[in-house]
Amino acid sequence: MAEAILVPQVGQDLTEAKVVELHVKLGDQVKKGDLVAVVESEKASFEVEAFCEGTVISLPWQVGDTATVLEPLMHVGAPGETVAEAARSAAAEPAVVPAVAPAAQPEAAQVAQAEPLVAKVATGVVNAALRASPIARRVAAGQGLDLARIAGSGPKGAVVLKDVAALAVGGAPTTGGGALELRTLQAGQGTPVVFIHGFGADLSSWRPLVARIGLGSPMMALDLPGHGGSRGHGAADFAGLVGAVGQTLRGLQGSVHLVGHSLGAAVAVALTQRGDLDVRSLTLIAPAGLGASVDGAFVEGFLGAKSEAALAAWMRRLVSDPATLAPVLVRATLAAREDADLVPAQSRVARGVFEGSTQLFSAAAALRSYQGPCTVIAGRDDAIVPLREIEAALPGHVALHRLDRVGHLPQVEAADLVQTLIARTVRSAG
């Protein structure tokens, strides 16, 4: 019998939520606990998990739509079942509202519910009707920006962080244009922890890890140029990636802790030499940029895969034990490629940073110069970036954790340990 997965109510008085990610498409098989979507209000983002097993037979909302809460986000039923049959089932039996995992809780939930949404900017103007997320208000105030003059892209036109960041860097020269997609995955107090994904991924890949780290700091993630919400950014070589990320993070106006994976780890290291960012700590997971080698066959095969079977075959090279590669990760990667611009954008980046099986960049000198707390986490079975080259490049003051039976995705294959090491590194910075 078909069941509806409803749009969750993401705030006490909110009736709408923006669909920002869909991890399934019509005909996909889902099982209980699979991440199927992410929805966003003006205050928080929430992950929606499947509470039942079956085939996706209806997707009334698409990414970018503003959906009505407690209405069906999708229907899950038997192969060949129709939406009309699902509707009859829903009328006969109340649908279950899915449990949602908070990806970015309000900064002060009780206060936010008690107080009207008010933006105060440097001009002294107060507009009680203006909609903006808490972090967008804080960053705008710190930069002296008038929220009333910023076009919002969030639900009901709310101003969100990427809108403020785009304005903050709008007058600066860029190699590709504009700010990168930057989201708050978990609100908190103090210095933000910013996560930078590796080649071929996007910021949503950090959500399962962030949800369990246990730090009270703000947790943020961005999409590299050519990836996710930043796929339209034109930066395509390593210097361009570093410049684009640096410009985006400069909008935060303050210190940051950086956590990077693979190519994102190399970008994180290079950011320490810009001179305009105070990087309090580095956690580098399977870092690129410390040696010359990369699995060029993987890069080519990954970009060329067009079916779920082919993509899964290449993505298994990322892990030591193929059983640890969740099918939902493969399906989500394939679903993202329904945007025809994504693979060409990633291919452009690949040509700028790799040549065959060679990395065209190095972050080794920057790592030697960095004197803050730094932890490197690498798998002994990494087939993408060889552990031996990472070991050879590390200066003595960097802590290296070599993980047995782990490949290029320690954050997936040894998630508990990686969470502990990130928290330890951040706390060690004081």
UniProtKB/TrEMBL annotation:
Protein name: Alpha/beta fold hydrolase
Family note: Belongs to the 2-oxoacid dehydrogenase family.
MF terms (GO), sorted A to Z: hydrolase activity
Organism: Albidovulum sediminicola
Cofactor: (R)-lipoate
Keyword tags: Hydrolase, Lipoyl
Ranges for domain Lipoyl-binding: 2-77
Matches recorded under Gene3D superfamilies: 2.40.50.100, alpha/beta hydrolase, E3-binding domain
Keyword rRNA-binding: no
Domain Peripheral subunit-binding (PSBD): 131-168
UniProt entry tagged with the keyword Hydrolase: yes
